[in-house]
Amino acid sequence: MANSTSASLKLTVQATGENSGTWGQITNTNLLILEQAIGGYDAFNVTNASRALTFTNGALSNGKNEVIKLTGTLEANVNVTIPDSVEKTYLVEDACNHAGFTLTFKTTSGTGVLLCEGHTYTLYSDGTNVVKAGELKTWRAVSAAETVQAGAQLLVNTNGGAVTVTLPASPSAGDEVSFIDQGYDFNTNALTVGRNSSNIANSASDLTVSTQGAGFSLVYSGDATTGWTYREK
Q1: Of 59, 154, 196, 212, whose CB count within 10 A is highest?
Q2: Domains delineated in the chain
Q3: Given pLDDT bands bounded at 50, 70 and 90, which one contains residue 23?
């Protein structure tokens, strides 16, 4: 009976009587793969093309790490994929500069999670799709125009001039974006919130905020007429 390979971590499952003289090396490699899955770390650079994390049979591979840090400046919408059959948990840090593009962590053929710049996620694959189990949000300073992702928490500084922040395209109900006037300058140089084809508070117009020290969140209502609405009143 020949050796086989485990479904998720691609460990070598040794058959009785096989691997005379090499079983120790195979066992040690399996233990190193388990160590990688429990506490391994890899920084994975992404830029302008979808990239697959590797799961080589019987060998250490970057997709088997517990912690994945995504780095680089996006030049297009990018998918980071794992194989469809893998069942595994991950801690994923999105340390990319999105530059207005999207970054999704998913299985090859299934669905996944749209990541927000600067956030860290607890994700798991059920063998078909990648699902979000938790999200650690961080506040991020912004002083120039950009399109942001759902979940963004922005410290907007308009000291050098007016800034336009564009909301995510094709939002889902419950998506949220938060804003704070970092430098207390909105009354001098306004923040414009670009609606990106969705209404904001029942209006098919961009939102201009010129109140000094303003802080607020917009949540997508799921209703096309209402569109984005205020979390705080």
Answers
A1: 154
A2: 4-136 (no CATH), 139-230 (2.60.120.640)
A3: confident
